[in-house]
Amino acid sequence: xxxxxxxxxxxxxxxxxxxxxxxxxxxxxxxxxxxxxxxxxxxxxxxxxxxxxxxxxxxxxxxxxxxxxxxxxxxxxxxxxxxxxxxxxxxxxxxxxxxxxxxxxxxxxxxxxxxxxxxxxxxxxxxxxxxxxxxxxxxxxxxxxxxxxxxxxxxxxxxxxxxxxxxxxxxxxxxxxxxxxxxxxxxxxxxxxxxxxxxxxx
Length: 202
Known about the structure:
Elements: E1 3-14, E2 17-28, E3 45-62, E4 65-80, E5 85-99, H1 104-109, H2 121-126, E6 128-135, E7 139-142, E8 147-161, E9 181-191
Antiparallel strand pairs: 1-2, 2-3, 3-4, 4-5, 5-6, 5-7, 6-8, 7-8, 8-9
């Protein structure tokens, strides 16, 4: 067949990536014949359907060093790998921590004192930055275009941090330091940000 279904607290893992969900349904592009003794190539995913609470986590490494960490929690996640479209329901949240992401704030709120000459390039690359997004409504996006749109009572906190584990206090914007922001809106769109655990080979 082309569809596989897994139930009861499912965990799917790949190098530096993990997905947890109550029920997972996977549809492949090609027919899989389990009775065929001939070697078959690894199948490509067509759709991924997660029911109930969904938790996604991913880390990115470069030259042996961790450069990013992302974690996301939503409800009823669907990913179409043919079109790249994905959708989920809220309430949910996303956390993104990464090095060298000085332009991340610009992707959210447009130009805002992002002059690259303001700091040496080496200083910008050395900074660890964290963004936290909480939302109550639907979540939509596209894997191929690396876009996300969050809806309904969206709250964003963004700041430079000292470690991967630092948590932002969105209720106290002054604690976020220079360049830190807290923003509330009805809808938020973010571009050029990969969605955790959405590789077709995962």
